[in-house]
Design a protein that fits this description.
This protein is mostly helical and 72 residues long. The chain has three helices and no strands. It has one domain. 72% of the residues lie in helices and 0% in strands.
């Protein structure tokens, strides 16, 4: 266990239950924010989805027409 993890545990042990819950909620918030930033980087990387890019280019070349349900 890292030193910072041990310190967080020591601090949480002396906090009342509602404050421990607040620490846990904040940690979950930080984790969600970090994961969201990762997705943002992936989505904004122009080279991250070459097959999607190719599909979008090909789709843009096709003529617009109503959906033919019999072809599905």
């Amino acid at each position: 266990m890292s030193e910072i993890t041990s310190e967080i545990l020591r601090v949480c042990e002396v906090l009342p239950e509602e404050k421990r819950q607040a620490v846990a909620d904040f940690a979950r918030f930080l984790l969600a924010q970090q994961q969201e930033e990762g997705w943002e980087r992936r989505l904004n990387d122009p080279g991250s989805a070459p097959r999607l890019e190719a599909f979008l280019r090909e789709s843009a070349k096709e003529a617009d027409e109503p959906m033919d349900l019999s072809r599905l």
